[in-house]
Amino acid sequence: MAAVNVAIPALAQDLQASAVKVAWLPTVYILSNVAFLLPVGKLADMYGRKRMYVGGLILNCIAALFCTFSSNIDVILFWRFVQGIAAAMIFGTGVAIVSSIVPDQKRGMALGIVASCVYFGLTLAPALGGYLTELYGWRAVFFFQVPPIVLLIGFILLYLKGEWRHAVKGRYDVYGTFIFVAFTTSLVFGLSFITELQGFLMFVLSLLLLAAFIYHQSQQSHPLIRVQLFRENRLFSLSLLTSFFMYGSNFALLFLLSLYLQFILGYSPSHAGNILLLQALAMAIIAPFAGKLADRFNSRIVATLGCLGVALGLVVLNFLDMHSQAEQVGVGLVVVGIGFGLFSTPNNKAIMSSVSSDNVGIASAAMNLGRTLGNLVGMSLVNVMVIYFIGDAIISELVKNELMLTVSMALKMSLLMVCLACVGSSMRGKNVL
Fold this sequence. Notes:
Growth Hormone, Chain: A; 2 domains; transmembrane helix; transmembrane; transmembrane transporter activity; MFS_dom; Sugar_transporter_CS
């Protein structure tokens, strides 16, 4: 899934897509991911987490095939939206399954292994995406998702026995789902066009819809999420807030640096991919050790150290200019990766351990919601910068100066978000699990 970021420049050139539509490729994916995380988490608790997980894999496989054979950027944007729904089904339930079968005293290590597997996938993605794009074109990056998914579905059906769901099924909140989807959609479009009157009005509408959603959930006997939990559980709410800022600072990073390395420094897709994999590689190596530290020590301290590490890496990246060397990008990404590896597992353990066993599905969905909502807001703000500095121009060497300005502003925004995350992480209290 993550390999697509490296293929975006080639896709944009082949389809002659404008900068605005190119920026929407990651945004529309994360939009549907955010919009469907809570509904998916609730449905998984009601009808089975493994069933939802396998359904997400099948849906992603179908969407990847349609992206492979599409020759229109608008069609690809639609299927990227579908892939976002599939990602919600996969990542909104995977951690819940692990948390359902692992005792609390070993949960940090287990979540560290999960995070490490994710990060190893992210490590391979840029290099793999770069080589596939160079050798076979951008379509190969989408098609390559299909064979591993087919094998994985077969493996799950053969070896992952049993099902995990809430003991009491309850009712599904349809109206709450509609309000939440409307909120996320209006938020994205509002932030993306906030410099215009229509965008500003949509942003205001999103805030009103958020208030309506919170009120509606507080009145329901079977809500998508117990909003009272945020007020009653400081550890849960501050851990989610920290996650929001951390992932908001990071999601657009690979997208921006992929454009920077290829269009400004002139590197090939494979060369750029080899540089971009450094962050995820560092995360993959550190995450299991961070899980062990989270089982033994105060997770607030470990996670806050991780936030500070990411901030240091972003300081390095904020010095990039038109003539920087690849080594500077690599060093910055490694430091960011070490910091994120220290942060993610302790923070996830704090979230999952702060709720009862009956609520691990919705806690998993809320954890992913905090992450993806941060991704969504961060990428939407980057969209604003792309629209303001580049507009409808096709991304090429003709707009190098404008692209460099966009990258510089986005990196400053990321650093500010991480600083806010440091504050949120340190405020969780001394008795953090």
